[in-house]
Amino acid sequence: MSDPVRTIAFLVLRAVEQDDAYVNLLLPRMLAEHKVTGRDAAFATELVHGTVRQQGTYDAVIDTLSSRTIDPAVRDALRLGAHQLLSLRVPNHAAVSETVDVVRREIGHKPVGFVNAILRKVGARSLDDWIEELSAGLDPDDARSVRSSHPRWVVEAFRDALDGTDDDLDALLEADNAPPRVTLVARPGLAAPDELPGEPGRHSPFARIMADGDPGSVAAVREGRAGVQDEGSQLVALTLADAVLTGSDARWLDLCAGPGGKAALLGALAAQRGAHLVANELQHHRAELVRSSMRLLPDVEVTEHDGRAGPWDAATFDRVLVDAPCTGLGALRRRPEARWRRRPEDLATLTDLQRGLLERALELTRPGGVTVYATCSPHRAETTGIVAAVTADRDDVTVETTHQWWPHVHGTDAMFAAVLRRR
Q1: Phi then psi for 417, rounded to 5 degrees?
Q2: PANTHER family from the xrefs (predicted)?
Q3: Which of 105, 229, 257, 374 is the most buried (most CB within 10 A)?
Protein backbone atom coordinates (compact mmCIF):
# COMPACT_ATOMS: atom_id res chain seq x y z
CA MET A 1 0.00 0.00 0.00
CA SER A 2 1.49 3.33 -1.03
CA ASP A 3 -0.90 5.05 1.40
CA PRO A 4 -1.83 2.38 3.96
CA VAL A 5 -3.79 4.74 6.22
CA ARG A 6 -6.31 5.89 3.62
CA THR A 7 -6.43 2.46 1.98
CA ILE A 8 -7.25 0.76 5.28
CA ALA A 9 -9.87 3.42 5.98
CA PHE A 10 -11.47 2.82 2.58
CA LEU A 11 -11.44 -0.97 2.98
CA VAL A 12 -13.08 -0.72 6.40
CA LEU A 13 -15.78 1.56 4.96
CA ARG A 14 -16.43 -1.00 2.24
CA ALA A 15 -16.70 -3.83 4.77
CA VAL A 16 -19.14 -1.81 6.87
CA GLU A 17 -21.28 -1.17 3.80
CA GLN A 18 -21.02 -4.59 2.14
CA ASP A 19 -20.63 -7.05 5.00
CA ASP A 20 -22.27 -5.29 7.96
CA ALA A 21 -18.85 -5.21 9.65
CA TYR A 22 -18.38 -3.36 12.91
CA VAL A 23 -15.84 -0.55 12.88
CA ASN A 24 -14.65 -1.16 16.45
CA LEU A 25 -13.84 -4.80 15.65
CA LEU A 26 -12.46 -4.61 12.11
CA LEU A 27 -10.33 -1.45 12.20
CA PRO A 28 -7.99 -2.47 15.08
CA ARG A 29 -7.44 -5.84 13.42
CA MET A 30 -6.48 -4.26 10.09
CA LEU A 31 -4.20 -1.71 11.73
CA ALA A 32 -2.39 -4.50 13.58
CA GLU A 33 -2.17 -6.64 10.45
CA HIS A 34 -0.49 -3.84 8.51
CA LYS A 35 1.59 -2.67 11.50
CA VAL A 36 0.08 0.82 11.48
CA THR A 37 0.68 2.49 14.84
CA GLY A 38 1.01 5.86 16.55
CA ARG A 39 -0.15 8.94 14.69
CA ASP A 40 -0.97 6.97 11.56
CA ALA A 41 -3.27 4.67 13.55
CA ALA A 42 -4.92 7.68 15.17
CA PHE A 43 -5.45 9.28 11.75
CA ALA A 44 -6.94 6.07 10.34
CA THR A 45 -9.27 5.85 13.33
CA GLU A 46 -10.47 9.43 12.83
CA LEU A 47 -10.90 8.86 9.09
CA VAL A 48 -13.12 5.81 9.59
CA HIS A 49 -15.12 6.84 12.65
CA GLY A 50 -15.56 10.42 11.46
CA THR A 51 -16.60 9.42 7.95
CA VAL A 52 -19.19 6.92 9.21
CA ARG A 53 -20.57 9.36 11.79
CA GLN A 54 -20.91 12.21 9.30
CA GLN A 55 -21.88 10.24 6.22
CA GLY A 56 -25.46 11.55 6.25
CA THR A 57 -24.18 15.11 5.89
CA TYR A 58 -21.57 14.13 3.33
CA ASP A 59 -24.13 12.19 1.26
CA ALA A 60 -26.36 15.26 1.17
CA VAL A 61 -23.43 17.34 -0.16
CA ILE A 62 -22.43 14.69 -2.70
CA ASP A 63 -25.99 14.25 -3.98
CA THR A 64 -26.29 18.01 -4.45
CA LEU A 65 -23.30 17.87 -6.79
CA SER A 66 -24.27 14.77 -8.77
CA SER A 67 -27.64 13.63 -10.05
CA ARG A 68 -26.40 10.27 -11.31
CA THR A 69 -26.54 6.96 -9.45
CA ILE A 70 -23.23 6.53 -7.67
CA ASP A 71 -21.64 3.11 -7.27
CA PRO A 72 -21.41 2.18 -3.54
CA ALA A 73 -17.62 1.83 -3.61
CA VAL A 74 -17.26 5.22 -5.30
CA ARG A 75 -19.62 6.76 -2.75
CA ASP A 76 -17.46 5.41 0.10
CA ALA A 77 -14.41 7.03 -1.50
CA LEU A 78 -16.29 10.32 -1.89
CA ARG A 79 -17.37 10.20 1.76
CA LEU A 80 -13.76 9.58 2.79
CA GLY A 81 -12.56 12.52 0.72
CA ALA A 82 -15.37 14.77 1.96
CA HIS A 83 -14.46 14.07 5.58
CA GLN A 84 -10.87 15.18 4.95
CA LEU A 85 -12.00 18.27 3.07
CA LEU A 86 -14.78 19.43 5.38
CA SER A 87 -13.89 18.21 8.87
CA LEU A 88 -10.12 17.65 9.07
CA ARG A 89 -7.12 19.90 8.62
CA VAL A 90 -6.00 18.15 5.47
CA PRO A 91 -5.00 20.51 2.64
CA ASN A 92 -7.46 20.33 -0.22
CA HIS A 93 -4.92 19.20 -2.79
CA ALA A 94 -3.73 16.34 -0.55
CA ALA A 95 -7.26 15.23 0.36
CA VAL A 96 -8.30 15.13 -3.30
CA SER A 97 -5.16 13.60 -4.77
CA GLU A 98 -4.72 10.92 -2.09
CA THR A 99 -8.38 9.90 -2.29
CA VAL A 100 -8.18 9.74 -6.08
CA ASP A 101 -5.12 7.48 -5.75
CA VAL A 102 -7.09 5.14 -3.48
CA VAL A 103 -9.87 5.03 -6.08
CA ARG A 104 -7.38 4.26 -8.85
CA ARG A 105 -5.82 1.38 -6.86
CA GLU A 106 -8.89 -0.12 -5.22
CA ILE A 107 -11.69 0.53 -7.73
CA GLY A 108 -10.05 1.28 -11.06
CA HIS A 109 -9.39 4.10 -13.53
CA LYS A 110 -12.95 4.62 -14.78
CA PRO A 111 -14.35 6.69 -11.84
CA VAL A 112 -11.15 8.68 -11.23
CA GLY A 113 -12.23 11.76 -13.19
CA PHE A 114 -15.67 11.81 -11.60
CA VAL A 115 -14.27 11.51 -8.06
CA ASN A 116 -11.69 14.20 -8.73
CA ALA A 117 -14.33 16.63 -10.05
CA ILE A 118 -16.81 16.06 -7.23
CA LEU A 119 -14.21 16.38 -4.47
CA ARG A 120 -12.87 19.62 -5.91
CA LYS A 121 -16.39 21.05 -5.75
CA VAL A 122 -16.87 19.71 -2.21
CA GLY A 123 -13.69 21.42 -1.05
CA ALA A 124 -14.61 24.75 -2.61
CA ARG A 125 -16.89 25.55 0.34
CA SER A 126 -16.74 25.08 4.11
CA LEU A 127 -18.85 22.58 6.02
CA ASP A 128 -20.85 25.42 7.60
CA ASP A 129 -21.59 26.88 4.18
CA TRP A 130 -22.73 23.51 2.86
CA ILE A 131 -24.99 22.91 5.88
CA GLU A 132 -26.54 26.38 5.53
CA GLU A 133 -27.37 25.68 1.89
CA LEU A 134 -28.64 22.15 2.53
CA SER A 135 -30.82 23.24 5.45
CA ALA A 136 -32.53 26.09 3.61
CA GLY A 137 -36.24 25.43 3.35
CA LEU A 138 -36.21 22.32 5.53
CA ASP A 139 -38.31 21.92 8.66
CA PRO A 140 -36.31 22.08 11.92
CA ASP A 141 -35.87 18.34 12.44
CA ASP A 142 -34.97 17.66 8.81
CA ALA A 143 -32.37 20.40 9.16
CA ARG A 144 -31.12 18.76 12.38
CA SER A 145 -30.91 15.46 10.57
CA VAL A 146 -28.65 16.96 7.89
CA ARG A 147 -26.59 19.02 10.31
CA SER A 148 -26.05 16.28 12.88
CA SER A 149 -25.88 13.36 10.45
CA HIS A 150 -28.61 11.39 12.23
CA PRO A 151 -31.58 9.84 10.41
CA ARG A 152 -34.78 11.79 10.93
CA TRP A 153 -36.46 8.94 12.85
CA VAL A 154 -33.55 8.87 15.34
CA VAL A 155 -33.81 12.63 15.85
CA GLU A 156 -37.52 12.22 16.59
CA ALA A 157 -36.90 9.31 18.97
CA PHE A 158 -34.30 11.31 20.88
CA ARG A 159 -36.64 14.30 21.10
CA ASP A 160 -39.36 12.08 22.58
CA ALA A 161 -37.00 10.39 25.04
CA LEU A 162 -35.47 13.66 26.25
CA ASP A 163 -38.79 15.37 26.79
CA GLY A 164 -36.78 18.59 26.93
CA THR A 165 -35.86 21.63 24.89
CA ASP A 166 -34.37 21.99 21.44
CA ASP A 167 -31.11 22.90 23.17
CA ASP A 168 -31.12 19.52 24.94
CA LEU A 169 -31.71 17.72 21.67
CA ASP A 170 -28.97 19.62 19.87
CA ALA A 171 -26.54 18.96 22.72
CA LEU A 172 -27.26 15.22 22.55
CA LEU A 173 -26.82 15.07 18.79
CA GLU A 174 -23.55 16.97 19.08
CA ALA A 175 -22.32 14.65 21.85
CA ASP A 176 -23.15 11.64 19.66
CA ASN A 177 -20.66 12.91 17.09
CA ALA A 178 -17.81 13.52 19.56
CA PRO A 179 -15.25 10.70 19.78
CA PRO A 180 -15.61 9.09 23.23
CA ARG A 181 -12.62 8.72 25.52
CA VAL A 182 -11.51 5.24 26.49
CA THR A 183 -12.91 4.22 29.88
CA LEU A 184 -11.39 1.42 31.94
CA VAL A 185 -12.92 -0.58 34.78
CA ALA A 186 -10.98 -2.06 37.67
CA ARG A 187 -12.64 -5.37 38.51
CA PRO A 188 -13.09 -5.47 42.29
CA GLY A 189 -10.85 -7.92 44.07
CA LEU A 190 -8.64 -8.24 40.98
CA ALA A 191 -7.41 -4.68 40.40
CA ALA A 192 -7.46 -1.38 42.27
CA PRO A 193 -8.66 1.70 40.36
CA ASP A 194 -5.50 3.63 41.24
CA GLU A 195 -3.30 1.17 39.34
CA LEU A 196 -5.05 2.15 36.12
CA PRO A 197 -4.05 5.22 34.08
CA GLY A 198 -6.33 8.19 33.64
CA GLU A 199 -8.57 10.32 35.78
CA PRO A 200 -11.34 8.91 38.01
CA GLY A 201 -14.74 8.42 36.44
CA ARG A 202 -17.57 10.78 37.26
CA HIS A 203 -20.00 8.12 38.46
CA SER A 204 -18.47 4.67 38.95
CA PRO A 205 -15.86 4.16 41.71
CA PHE A 206 -14.16 1.56 39.52
CA ALA A 207 -13.76 3.75 36.42
CA ARG A 208 -10.69 5.44 35.03
CA ILE A 209 -10.87 7.61 31.90
CA MET A 210 -7.78 7.61 29.69
CA ALA A 211 -6.68 10.83 28.00
CA ASP A 212 -4.93 8.89 25.26
CA GLY A 213 -2.94 5.73 24.67
CA ASP A 214 -3.72 2.10 23.96
CA PRO A 215 -5.68 0.26 26.68
CA GLY A 216 -3.98 -2.93 25.52
CA SER A 217 -0.72 -1.54 26.89
CA VAL A 218 -2.15 -1.54 30.43
CA ALA A 219 -0.97 -4.62 32.32
CA ALA A 220 -4.20 -5.08 34.28
CA VAL A 221 -6.22 -5.01 31.03
CA ARG A 222 -3.96 -7.54 29.32
CA GLU A 223 -4.19 -9.83 32.34
CA GLY A 224 -7.98 -9.62 32.61
CA ARG A 225 -7.99 -7.89 35.99
CA ALA A 226 -9.43 -4.77 34.34
CA GLY A 227 -11.30 -4.10 31.14
CA VAL A 228 -12.49 -1.45 28.72
CA GLN A 229 -16.05 -0.51 29.68
CA ASP A 230 -18.08 2.65 29.29
CA GLU A 231 -19.06 4.19 32.59
CA GLY A 232 -22.75 3.86 31.71
CA SER A 233 -22.30 0.12 31.29
CA GLN A 234 -20.59 -0.02 34.68
CA LEU A 235 -23.51 1.87 36.21
CA VAL A 236 -25.98 -0.73 34.94
CA ALA A 237 -24.06 -3.53 36.67
CA LEU A 238 -23.73 -1.46 39.84
CA THR A 239 -27.46 -0.71 39.81
CA LEU A 240 -28.14 -4.42 40.12
CA ALA A 241 -25.37 -5.07 42.65
CA ASP A 242 -26.29 -2.10 44.86
CA ALA A 243 -30.03 -2.84 45.12
CA VAL A 244 -30.97 -3.54 48.74
CA LEU A 245 -32.02 -7.12 49.50
CA THR A 246 -33.29 -8.90 52.58
CA GLY A 247 -32.72 -12.61 52.95
CA SER A 248 -30.70 -14.71 50.54
CA ASP A 249 -28.15 -13.07 48.23
CA ALA A 250 -26.31 -16.09 46.88
CA ARG A 251 -27.47 -16.56 43.27
CA TRP A 252 -27.12 -13.94 40.56
CA LEU A 253 -28.03 -14.22 36.88
CA ASP A 254 -26.97 -12.19 33.85
CA LEU A 255 -29.54 -13.36 31.30
CA CYS A 256 -27.93 -11.78 28.19
CA ALA A 257 -24.26 -11.65 29.17
CA GLY A 258 -22.39 -11.25 25.87
CA PRO A 259 -19.87 -9.87 25.20
CA GLY A 260 -19.12 -9.94 28.93
CA GLY A 261 -18.30 -6.49 30.27
CA LYS A 262 -21.20 -6.18 32.70
CA ALA A 263 -20.94 -9.88 33.58
CA ALA A 264 -17.25 -9.52 34.48
CA LEU A 265 -17.97 -6.62 36.83
CA LEU A 266 -20.91 -8.49 38.36
CA GLY A 267 -18.82 -11.64 38.70
CA ALA A 268 -16.10 -9.77 40.55
CA LEU A 269 -18.63 -8.16 42.89
CA ALA A 270 -20.42 -11.48 43.44
CA ALA A 271 -17.13 -13.19 44.31
CA GLN A 272 -16.45 -10.62 47.02
CA ARG A 273 -19.85 -11.38 48.57
CA GLY A 274 -19.67 -15.15 48.27
CA ALA A 275 -22.38 -15.22 45.61
CA HIS A 276 -22.50 -17.38 42.47
CA LEU A 277 -23.10 -15.75 39.07
CA VAL A 278 -24.65 -17.51 36.10
CA ALA A 279 -23.70 -15.62 32.93
CA ASN A 280 -25.91 -16.73 30.06
CA GLU A 281 -25.49 -15.95 26.37
CA LEU A 282 -27.36 -17.40 23.41
CA GLN A 283 -24.69 -17.02 20.72
CA HIS A 284 -21.68 -19.30 21.07
CA HIS A 285 -19.05 -16.83 19.83
CA ARG A 286 -20.30 -14.23 22.29
CA ALA A 287 -20.36 -16.82 25.07
CA GLU A 288 -16.69 -17.43 24.33
CA LEU A 289 -16.04 -13.73 24.85
CA VAL A 290 -17.84 -13.97 28.20
CA ARG A 291 -15.65 -16.94 29.19
CA SER A 292 -12.56 -14.96 28.25
CA SER A 293 -13.61 -11.99 30.38
CA MET A 294 -14.32 -14.37 33.29
CA ARG A 295 -11.07 -16.31 33.17
CA LEU A 296 -9.91 -15.01 36.56
CA LEU A 297 -13.29 -15.59 38.23
CA PRO A 298 -13.65 -19.33 38.93
CA ASP A 299 -17.09 -19.16 40.57
CA VAL A 300 -18.89 -17.97 37.45
CA GLU A 301 -20.95 -20.37 35.36
CA VAL A 302 -21.23 -19.48 31.66
CA THR A 303 -24.23 -21.03 29.91
CA GLU A 304 -25.56 -20.92 26.35
CA HIS A 305 -29.36 -20.75 26.16
CA ASP A 306 -32.15 -18.58 24.83
CA GLY A 307 -32.78 -16.45 27.89
CA ARG A 308 -36.53 -16.89 27.47
CA ALA A 309 -36.31 -20.68 27.76
CA GLY A 310 -33.22 -21.59 29.77
CA PRO A 311 -33.27 -24.61 32.14
CA TRP A 312 -33.50 -22.64 35.39
CA ASP A 313 -36.17 -23.14 38.02
CA ALA A 314 -38.58 -20.31 38.76
CA ALA A 315 -37.92 -17.98 41.70
CA THR A 316 -34.37 -19.26 42.28
CA PHE A 317 -32.27 -16.13 41.71
CA ASP A 318 -31.78 -13.21 44.07
CA ARG A 319 -30.56 -10.73 41.45
CA VAL A 320 -31.20 -10.89 37.70
CA LEU A 321 -29.89 -8.57 34.98
CA VAL A 322 -31.61 -8.34 31.59
CA ASP A 323 -29.27 -6.32 29.38
CA ALA A 324 -31.58 -6.82 26.43
CA PRO A 325 -30.65 -6.78 22.73
CA CYS A 326 -31.74 -3.42 21.35
CA THR A 327 -31.24 -0.90 18.57
CA GLY A 328 -28.03 0.37 20.20
CA LEU A 329 -29.05 4.00 19.66
CA GLY A 330 -27.46 4.89 22.99
CA ALA A 331 -23.97 3.94 21.81
CA LEU A 332 -23.76 5.83 18.53
CA ARG A 333 -20.55 7.50 19.72
CA ARG A 334 -18.85 4.09 19.83
CA ARG A 335 -20.76 2.25 17.11
CA PRO A 336 -21.31 4.93 14.48
CA GLU A 337 -22.54 2.47 11.85
CA ALA A 338 -25.63 1.65 13.98
CA ARG A 339 -27.37 4.91 13.05
CA TRP A 340 -27.38 3.87 9.38
CA ARG A 341 -27.95 0.15 9.92
CA ARG A 342 -31.02 0.30 12.14
CA ARG A 343 -34.52 1.00 10.83
CA PRO A 344 -37.76 1.90 12.65
CA GLU A 345 -39.21 -1.44 11.58
CA ASP A 346 -36.53 -3.23 13.64
CA LEU A 347 -38.35 -2.13 16.79
CA ALA A 348 -41.21 -4.61 16.45
CA THR A 349 -38.92 -7.65 16.52
CA LEU A 350 -36.70 -6.23 19.23
CA THR A 351 -39.51 -5.17 21.55
CA ASP A 352 -41.11 -8.64 21.31
CA LEU A 353 -37.78 -10.13 22.37
CA GLN A 354 -37.29 -7.57 25.13
CA ARG A 355 -40.73 -8.27 26.60
CA GLY A 356 -40.10 -11.99 26.55
CA LEU A 357 -36.75 -11.65 28.29
CA LEU A 358 -38.07 -9.36 31.00
CA GLU A 359 -41.05 -11.63 31.65
CA ARG A 360 -38.71 -14.61 32.00
CA ALA A 361 -36.33 -12.66 34.26
CA LEU A 362 -39.17 -11.78 36.62
CA GLU A 363 -40.25 -15.42 36.69
CA LEU A 364 -36.72 -16.44 37.70
CA THR A 365 -36.43 -13.80 40.45
CA ARG A 366 -37.43 -14.91 43.94
CA PRO A 367 -39.99 -12.91 45.94
CA GLY A 368 -38.09 -10.03 47.49
CA GLY A 369 -35.39 -10.26 44.82
CA VAL A 370 -34.60 -7.69 42.15
CA THR A 371 -34.51 -7.64 38.38
CA VAL A 372 -32.76 -4.86 36.49
CA TYR A 373 -33.92 -4.33 32.92
CA ALA A 374 -31.40 -2.39 30.84
CA THR A 375 -30.87 -1.30 27.25
CA CYS A 376 -28.22 0.68 25.43
CA SER A 377 -30.99 2.71 23.85
CA PRO A 378 -33.04 5.67 25.06
CA HIS A 379 -35.93 4.92 22.67
CA ARG A 380 -39.10 4.86 24.76
CA ALA A 381 -40.39 1.78 22.95
CA GLU A 382 -37.37 -0.13 24.28
CA THR A 383 -37.21 1.39 27.75
CA THR A 384 -40.17 2.64 29.77
CA GLY A 385 -42.53 1.18 27.17
CA ILE A 386 -41.29 -2.36 27.81
CA VAL A 387 -41.37 -1.95 31.59
CA ALA A 388 -44.92 -0.60 31.46
CA ALA A 389 -46.14 -3.34 29.12
CA VAL A 390 -44.70 -6.14 31.25
CA THR A 391 -45.81 -4.80 34.64
CA ALA A 392 -49.22 -3.35 33.73
CA ASP A 393 -51.28 -6.36 34.81
CA ARG A 394 -48.98 -7.71 37.53
CA ASP A 395 -49.51 -7.08 41.22
CA ASP A 396 -46.38 -9.01 42.22
CA VAL A 397 -43.86 -6.55 40.76
CA THR A 398 -42.93 -3.04 41.87
CA VAL A 399 -40.96 -0.66 39.65
CA GLU A 400 -38.73 0.96 42.25
CA THR A 401 -36.70 3.35 40.10
CA THR A 402 -35.57 4.07 36.56
CA HIS A 403 -32.34 5.63 35.36
CA GLN A 404 -31.52 7.24 32.03
CA TRP A 405 -27.94 8.32 31.47
CA TRP A 406 -26.97 10.61 28.56
CA PRO A 407 -23.75 11.44 26.67
CA HIS A 408 -24.32 15.20 26.87
CA VAL A 409 -25.26 15.18 30.57
CA HIS A 410 -23.32 12.32 32.20
CA GLY A 411 -20.55 11.69 29.67
CA THR A 412 -21.72 8.09 29.25
CA ASP A 413 -23.50 6.14 26.57
CA ALA A 414 -27.28 6.65 26.69
CA MET A 415 -27.98 3.70 28.98
CA PHE A 416 -31.36 2.93 30.54
CA ALA A 417 -31.95 0.81 33.65
CA ALA A 418 -35.10 0.02 35.63
CA VAL A 419 -35.09 -1.70 39.01
CA LEU A 420 -38.04 -4.06 39.52
CA ARG A 421 -38.70 -5.95 42.72
CA ARG A 422 -40.72 -9.15 43.08
CA ARG A 423 -43.10 -8.86 46.00
Answers
A1: -145, 135
A2: NOP2 YEAST -RELATED NOL1/NOP2/FMU SUN DOMAIN-CONTAINING, RIBOSOMAL RNA SMALL SUBUNIT METHYLTRANSFERASE B-RELATED
A3: 257
